């Protein structure tokens, strides 16, 4: 296992503010230094290019990953929700924050465990691994074995995360605006509000425990999927304990057979459709590490439900109407469904509406027959159309939070299908869900192992 870097988490508003202050000073120094180097080379002053120097970008990445919490989360959201509007260098460094976090040193970890379990907590375990097996913006995960032999994954929340959310996000946004790393026309206020709401929800481990139990009820009849059982005696508001689920993240499936790759990718597409149309309850986090594949036993483990949420019935019906319009190539119905979902605001020009419909019709090509994800250039086309809509036609509008989260999940599945080089008859997969009267949906057959 690769050992993650360990650094104390800055806690307290003044301490975290001083970290932001040092980051701002470092970025300012980098701007001046890069400006001097450009002058020595006979080049003109370019504020954004100087801000995007390798040194400045590394400073931002290192400091945000060290601070964790809200600081990391905004970087992640910007890279996913507005990535096509950001300079490529900044989008890349922010995207890297998704899987890059410093871990807590033992001096900060042990007091958290003692506060939750009592000073004698080590006597409850045969073994507790202090080196985390995962670390992200909200907390880190440890592997442990109880005295009874139960194998657990224990998620420990970073200290002070909840209290620092609003302040940290506002500080990061101010820094990115001041340094001109963000395009001047990009309104990140909706992203700030989204990041604050998401972090508050994901930091509520009691909520996550409820979502886990709901997903267990929904998937109880599916033998291909396994979810961890909660260990309530070690769980609370700041610590969440559950069965350890083994396996490799599903994006490591490349070494499996073509049949296995096709089966599991299609399985996840079908799972999302069931979540949206059957249960109206979706685990919205697209992180591949949340899907752990055990090829030996031919099952897929699902973990991490802090981002699960219930979707309004009207929105689910609007997405069904959108799918029907895409398959029927019905432009007026497509625009009407887009309006229901919230893609459109009042007063759009005819040119803006036409570009939006063109963008949606571009997505609709995946329903024309068996779709070769590996050979697809859909993402590049969508980025070009989105930039035309935003810059050339002057339309920048934030859809509802639920729509953004669903888009992120779909984008993750699309990327997985590309990476696994599968060809899927997407129209056949979604067909059973187009009729609102259709109950529980069928699943594809397990591949025959060689």
From TrEMBL:
Q: What is its EC number?
A: 2.7.-.-
Nucleotide-binding as a keyword? yes
Per UniProt, residues of the ABC1 atypical kinase-like domain are 97-334
Ordered alphabetically, the record's keywords are:
ATP-binding, Kinase, Nucleotide-binding, Transferase
Pfam families from the xrefs?
ABC1 (PF03109)
Output the superkingdom of the source species.
Bacteria
Which principal EC class is assigned to this enzyme?
transferase
ATP-binding keyword on record: yes
A GO term, aspect molecular function: kinase activity
**Family that this chain belongs to:** Belongs to the protein kinase superfamily. ADCK protein kinase family.
Tell me the protein's name: AarF/ABC1/UbiB kinase family protein
Per the UniProt record, the source organism is Marinospirillum alkalitolerans
């Amino acid at each position: 296992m690769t050992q993650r870097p360990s650094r104390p988490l800055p806690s307290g508003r003044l301490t975290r503010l001083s970290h932001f202050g040092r980051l701002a000073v470092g970025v300012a120094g980098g701007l001046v230094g890069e400006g001097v180097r450009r002058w020595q080379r006979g080049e003109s002053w370019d504020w954004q290019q100087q801000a995007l120097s390798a040194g400045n970008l590394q400073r931002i990445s290192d400091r945000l990953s060290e601070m964790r919490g809200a600081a990391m989360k905004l970087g992640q959201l910007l890279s996913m929700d507005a990535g096509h509007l950001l300079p490529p260098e900044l989008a890349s460094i922010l995207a890297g924050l998704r899987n890059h976090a410093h871990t807590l040193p033992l001096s900060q970890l042990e007091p958290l465990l003692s506060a939750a379990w009592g000073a004698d907590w080590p006597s409850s375990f045969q073994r507790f691994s202090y080196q985390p097996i995962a670390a992200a913006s909200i907390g880190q995960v440890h592997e442990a074995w109880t005295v009874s032999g139960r194998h657990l994954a224990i998620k420990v929340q970073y200290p002070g995360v909840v209290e620092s959310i609003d302040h940290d996000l506002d500080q990061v946004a101010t820094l990115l605006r001041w340094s001109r790393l963000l395009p001047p026309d990009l309104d990140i206020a909706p992203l700030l509000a989204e990041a604050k709401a998401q972090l508050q929800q994901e930091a509520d481990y009691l909520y996550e425990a409820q979502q886990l139990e709901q997903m267990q009820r929904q998937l109880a009849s599916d033998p291909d999927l396994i979810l961890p059982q909660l260990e309530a005696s070690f769980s609370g508001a700041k610590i969440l304990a559950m069965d350890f689920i083994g396996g490799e993240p599903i994006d490591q499936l490349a070494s499996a057979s073509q049949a296995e790759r096709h089966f599991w990718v299609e399985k996840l597409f079908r799972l999302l459709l069931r979540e949206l149309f059957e249960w109206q309850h979706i685990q919205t986090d697209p992180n591949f590490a949340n899907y752990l594949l055990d090829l030996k036993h031919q099952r897929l483990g699902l973990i991490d439900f802090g981002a699960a949420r219930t979707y309004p019935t009207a929105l689910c019906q609007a997405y069904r109407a959108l799918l029907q319009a895409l398959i029927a190539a019905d432009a007026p119905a497509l625009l009407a469904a887009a309006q229901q979902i919230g893609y459109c605001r009042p007063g759009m020009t005819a040119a803006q509406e036409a570009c939006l419909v063109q963008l949606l019709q571009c997505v609709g090509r995946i329903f024309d027959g068996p779709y070769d994800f590996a050979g697809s250039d859909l993402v590049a086309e969508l980025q070009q159309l989105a930039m035309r809509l935003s810059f050339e036609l002057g339309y920048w509008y934030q859809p509802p939070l639920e729509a953004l989260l669903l888009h992120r999940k779909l984008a993750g599945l699309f990327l997985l299908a590309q990476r696994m080089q599968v060809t899927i008859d997407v129209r056949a997969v979604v067909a059973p869900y187009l009729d609102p009267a259709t109950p529980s949906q069928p699943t594809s057959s397990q591949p025959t192992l060689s």
